Structure formats: C-alpha cells, structure tokens
Amino acid sequence: MRIVILVFSFLFALFGMPPAKAQAQGGRNWTNTVAMLPTGGVGVGNPMARVQLVEWASYTCSHCAAFARDAKPELTALVRSGRVRVEYRTLPRDALDLTAVVLARCGGPNRFVAAHDAIFSQQKAMLDKAEAFAATPAAQQPAPTIGKRLEQLADATGLRVLLRGHGLDDAQMTRCLNDEAGQKRAIAIAQAAQAAGVEGTPSFEVNGKKVVAHDWATLKPFLTAS
C-alpha cells in the first residue's frame, strides 16, 4: 500500500508465556519498558535486545491491521523475553490517519501499546464510520483549523469513545488533537520514512537493514534466526 502525502484538508482516500509464569522463572517482562524515541517512534522492549525491529505502519492500512493481529501472540512473547525490541513508527497518510496517530500517542509511552492495538482491532468500524462522515455536510465544509478537523474525525469515527476505554479523558484528547507541535511530530515520521525510501506499509527494518516482508509469516524468520 503506497504512502500518501498528508494534505491539510479533509481527505479520505478512501501472547506467549503468561506474565505470572515468566515471573516464576525469574524473567523480566520487557513489554513494560516503553519509551518515546528521538526518531519519533515508540520503542517497546529491551533497549539492548539482540534483535531491533522497526515497523512502519498506517492505522488506515488493512495489511497493517492484519499484521498486528497475526503477529501479536508470538511477537509479544519475543519482546517480553528481551530478545526483540520493537520500534513503532506510525505514518499518517491522511487526516483520519493523523487523528489516530495523535490519539495513540496522547497517553504517553505507558498507554501507547494498548491504544495502538485497540485502534487496529477496530479499524474496519473506524473506516466505515469515516466513509459515512465523508458524505455529510460537515465533512464538506472547511474546518477552521487542522485540530478542529481531527476533533470531528475523532468523534465521527468512534476513536474518542474507543480511547476513553484506555485511560484517556476528553479534555486530554482535545488538547492532543489541537496540539500543533504534536501534529508536526506525527507528520515528521512520514516525511522521514519517505526520505528513507519506505514505499508502503507495513514495512520493516531488522537491525538496521530493510527486509522484504509485509506479513508475520515472512517477517518471523528474520527475528528468530539464531
């Protein structure tokens, strides 16, 4: 799926071992180690892991949602064990994507993974609601600011309701959606991906090298090879 340059108007181009057992064996649960990184990505796992995985993904990309679903059990186990660290670089391709990226990051590192997973799990419903919103008079009218358009999308697509269930309150989400610096940080990830030659999502880099893989079955050997 090709990356689309973000246009500032409304466009809709349209778990492994249980933690208790791991602790019983004396292992640290590295899934709880999450940090916002200078690249703009979010790192999850052991910073010194043998395998450093970068994933470029879009919240409106169906292949990305499929990867998130298929990879979750085994990838979580690899991260928990400390063998793999994942850096998520979420690329906004349009206004809806930007809304999702901003809200996923809104709760900071400790809430990112749950928000990220929740958005992908509800992707189809989000896209259906966004398509319905695109046909309304409100969507046809220019928004006074980018933030106001993002607020409209958060409400119309159910993203605001979804993320209330993951620890974000309305005032916090409204601040994030209207934070120009936060919008620019999210967009900069997409710009950096284009500059690096990332042509679609999902795309992956393992230990600093791009790999030809776009699904879990193809990516897994790169992470588990001794």
Automatic annotation (TrEMBL):
Highest taxon of source: Bacteria
- Residue intervals of the Thioredoxin-like fold domain: 42-223
Q: Which UniProt keywords apply?
A: Isomerase, Signal
Signal peptide (from-to):
1-22
Q: Name one GO molecular function term.
A: isomerase activity
Name assigned to this protein: Protein-disulfide isomerase
- Give the source species: Sphingomonas hengshuiensis
